[in-house]
Amino acid sequence: ATHAALSEKDCKSITPPYALLIQNLADARQHIHHKLTLAEKILYSHLYDPKKRVGDEGKLRGQAYLQLRPERVAMQDASAQMALLQFMSAGLAQSVVPASIHCDHLIQAVDGAKSDLERSIVTNQEVFDFLESAARKYGIEFWRPGSGIIHQIVLENYAAPGMLMLGTDSHTPNAGGLGMLAIGVGGADAVDAMTGTPWELKHPEIVGIHLTGKMGPWVSPKDLILHIAGKLTVRGGTGRILEYFGPGVDAQSCTGLACVANMGAEVGATTSTFPYTAAMRAYLNATGRAPVARAADEAAAQGFLSADEGAEYDQLIQINLSELEPYINGPFTPDLATPLSKFGEFVKENGWKDDLSAALIGSCTNSSYQDMTSVADLASQARSAGLKTKVPFLCTPGSEQIRATMERDNVTSTLEDVGALVLANACGPCIGQWKRTDQPSEENAILTSFNRNFKSRNDGNARTMNFLASPTIVTAMAFSGSLQFNPMKDTIPLPSGGTFKFAAPVGQDLPPAGFTPGQNAFYPQQTPEPQPDTEIIINKDSQRLELLEPFTSPFVNGIRELPEMKVLMRVRGKCTTDHISAAGPWLKYKGHLTNISENLLITATNDEGGEVNVAFDQGPDGQTTTDTIPGVAKRFKARNQPWALVVDENYGEGSAREHAALQPRFYGCNMIIARSFARIHETNLKKQGVLPLWFVDKNDYSRIGSGDDVKTVGVSQLLSGNISATIKLRVTKANGDVFEIPTKHTMSEDQVRWLQAGSALNYIRSQMAL
Ligand code: F3S
């Protein structure tokens, strides 16, 4: 069977409402008069209120905050847990926008697809049961373990030109390959979209990347983004959208563009996008979505799916694809880009051993039909010469559809003939879920077609140097086993004597016989009806999942100021969301707020003493006890002692991780006073009912410290609707000194309602009850 063609009706939930979007854009153009890039068109057509002015012309990019209405949400199994737990506490019967859950990160690769999948389902049963029951209750599409990797499935099933989507994973931008904006976010942002709350984004700057020329036979879209990563570095895309255009875009397959968009995350870009192309249309048709393609054709005819002629970019990068060569990036950072022709020299200069220890292909970045048929071409050339790969060669298909189509078209058998081990359709080694049986005890090098190569990411071994390349380069080098091998010019000795040289790989963009869907069991019901009677499955003794108790509002019985708080500590210097809620071994507790809160601020520095993870508790008995930061927070919680935190510059920079706001609130934090906040984290604090305040005079930071009592003066005015009210802090020191400190706030009227209700979710729930 080929991929079932979906009807107009089936495609309703996956076709962007183009007429509405185009009208929204026309409304926005009443107050935005410059020529628009494609990214701006997609953003402005998704404004929550397109008729409302968002800021001064010329001061939008990089400055204005946009309130947006995303059309869809996708969540992977690790991050979906807290997103759903929060969504549940909003009390809605279903998600306001279509949403999907994908079980991919929790599957461990050991010895092959079938047994790995079976074993991982047992190990993670409680998480999968929870996700599935929540999906059923709220009408969310549930892609069970084995169905594939979130981004591949989104591209195959949900992505559409001109759409705005959020995903709780950093490589969500992969869907940009279909000419849309897909943005990776934290669970709290996904909950905004699912509850219909405006989703806020600082207007990104737009980088234009103009592609001309034609790629050579060994060069692929992966090499383009590896080259760009080298140019822009891991921070070059921060707060920016990468918008590609020019004749070089039209020459790429849709899945090739998706690979480029996927790895925009490696330069920190908000997302990446491309104007609608014939290859996108062909991909939509091949994946059964002809009605979406027809609707996109019409929208494109009205100029919606490409930039206005003469639109300006904040930076313009010119790339001639004819000059591009294959790249190998790494080790340990994706922006250390070395052209293939120089890589042998680079290995020698660094004194590394010339041996490759493993080669891995696939993942969400590179498991398209084009990738797989290209590597199968190389494998078949080598097989004809009697060669097998010299090192373990692992292949992770991105989805059941890709796996089944590879099998039908003899791609899999060709790869297996030369020694490949095909793993489950899941993240596996890409996210460190690789139980490497041949774990080397010394420095060794692996080559992958994945997207990230931080230390220890793949096999958990800090001595494994991980390099990124295209699937064809990875595959060719697996046959030589040498890091200095350049398949474009070098030969491999044959056991029978003589030498073998690869011809340039040839793949096919799309399967001539169509995609085959594979096992039906993996496919969810499309836009399922919510089943409100479904019981959400959480074992009460679970160490991984815990229902969220709604946070209580401090404003009850006529109280109009925050309760008197104790200052827990004064945090010194850089404090990112990683400092506030560490990752690594804590990831398994993402769905269990009590357990994960044990990591609160454990790498933060106390300005009073300069030590990391040390705080002081002046207990009710007057004795000062030294403890860890979560230790003191727990004592405060046990005593029902509300508390506040004093923090430094740019507090909460880093990611959108909602745990960094949930955890202090869980322990009883009501207020954080900063020299400055990172905006996303500041909003996350507001969502959880924590009041973020800024020192008017940054020197006041040093005047408040551990054990001080703090009261607010002025919150009552905020609650009465005086949004420009200033709030003062009345500080009482241990020695009895009392003084006031002026602060500023950035609360909007909506956000004051969140504070008043105890959290944004409480507020949403109260609105439902009306
Ligand atoms: Fe999974 Fe790796 Fe992609 S973790 S989502 S395959 S980046």
Give a topology summary.
Blueprint: H1 18-28, H2 38-45, E1 65-68, E2 72-76, H3 77-90, E3 99-102, H4 113-123, H5 125-138, E4 141-143, H6 150-157, E5 164-167, E6 181-184, H7 187-195, E7 199-202, E8 205-212, H8 221-232, E9 240-245, H9 247-250, H10 254-262, E10 271-273, H11 278-286, H12 290-301, E11 315-320, E12 327-329, E13 337-339, H13 340-349, E14 356-362, H14 369-384, E15 393-396, H15 400-408, H16 411-417, E16 420-422, E17 444-448, E18 464-468, H17 471-480, E19 492-493, E20 499-500, E21 565-572, H18 577-580, H19 593-596, E22 605-606, E23 615-618, E24 624-627, H20 629-638, E25 643-647, H21 659-666, E26 669-674, H22 679-687, E27 691-695, E28 709-713, H23 715-719, E29 727-732, E30 738-744, H24 749-757, H25 760-769
Parallel strand pairs: 2-3, 2-5, 3-4, 5-6, 8-9, 8-11, 9-10, 14-15, 14-17, 15-16, 17-18, 21-25, 25-26, 26-27
Antiparallel strand pairs: 1-7, 12-13, 19-20, 21-22, 21-28, 23-24, 27-30, 28-29, 29-30
Helix pairs in contact: 1-2, 3-5, 3-7, 3-25, 8-10, 11-12, 14-16, 14-17, 21-22, 24-25
The structure holds FE3-S4 cluster.
FE3-S4 cluster is lined by residues 104-105, 149-151, 169, 171, 363-364, 427, 430-431, 450-451.
Family: Belongs to the aconitase/IPM isomerase family.
Subcellular location: Mitochondrion
Cofactor: [4Fe-4S] cluster
